[in-house]
Write a structure and sequence with these properties.
Shape: elongated
Radius of gyration: 40 Å
Number of domains: 3
CATH architecture of the largest domain: Roll
Strand content: 15-25%
């Protein structure tokens, strides 16, 4: 480009008749020599001298456009009503969401996706899973030789039964049992035993299962208890030591016995 606008000084094509920036009509290029403009650009002196164009008005207009753009961004969500979003959520709009320019469709889809995520999260938080704690307590007790965790995992009538037979408190008695169990596991898997579990599934037990458990406890332990809830839980447990590791899958029953969610006995830890 060897031609410059005589009004604003922008570089133009040689055959340009009008400036693409300011709109000023251009004179003949005959005076241009050796690539130099016939009129040297001077932005301050030439501003507002072409075709009645007022640069002050141009600046003001630019400021107005910038302000309107900012307002539009801020109002993107504030001026969108629920009805307008719902109306834009046509099947055609959704199918062509990558091509549509309808912001209501985009906002509507985003809101729906967010709503679904929130609902799933809320449901996961609200659905009770009482079977998890006693199972976790059981395996923590085995791994850490923690008598109190085992006491928390077992029904009160079992704890009371052992408490009457031992000199120490029941948590200390359980700790002695757990140390023996832990030593046996270390013989097989090595030192520094760690146990991790994951819950595969859980099936709620029906009333006949609960009555059967009540009768079983009465026959085996001579205790009359109320079993008001229960789950058959499938878990996957991995035990790892310095020498070896093993993963087993098994099922454990968790009951609500006399108001406490618990395992029936220590035998439920026999996955390994």
């Amino acid at each position: 480009m060897s031609k410059f606008c005589h009004a604003c000084g922008v570089s133009l094509e040689d055959d340009a008749q009008t400036c693409y920036v300011c709109g000023a009509q251009q004179e003949s290029t005959g005076g241009a020599q050796s690539g130099q403009p016939d009129v040297q650009p001077n932005f301050q002196q030439n501003a507002g001298q072409h075709s009645g164009l007022d640069m002050n008005n141009v600046i003001k207009s630019a400021e107005n456009v910038a302000q309107q753009a900012g307002d539009a961004v801020k109002k993107t969500f504030s001026d969108v009503s629920f009805d307008s979003v719902k109306g834009a959520m046509s099947l055609n709009d959704i199918k062509n969401v990558g091509k549509t320019k309808n912001k209501n469709t985009i906002i509507g889809l985003a809101a729906c996706a967010l709503g679904v995520v929130l609902i799933i999260l809320l449901i996961s938080l609200l659905i009770p899973r009482p079977y998890k704690k006693p199972i976790k307590d059981m395996f923590t007790a085995i791994e850490k030789c923690d008598g109190k965790k085992l006491e928390a995992a077992l029904p009160d009538f079992i704890n009371d039964m052992y408490d009457e037979k031992v000199d120490d408190n029941v948590a200390d008695y359980y700790e002695d049992l757990l140390e023996v169990m832990n030593e046996a596991l270390e013989d097989e898997f090595g030192d520094d035993i760690s146990i991790s579990i994951s819950f595969v599934s859980a099936k709620k037990l029906d009333k006949s299962d609960l009555r059967h458990e009540e009768n079983k406890i009465k026959v085996n332990y001579g205790e009359k208890v109320d079993v008001t809830g229960g789950y058959k839980v499938k878990i996957k447990a991995t035990i790892k030591g310095d020498d070896d590791k093993d993963t087993s899958t098994g099922k454990m029953n968790v009951y609500k016995i006399d108001g406490k969610w618990c395992l029936e006995s220590l035998d439920d830890a026999s996955l390994f």
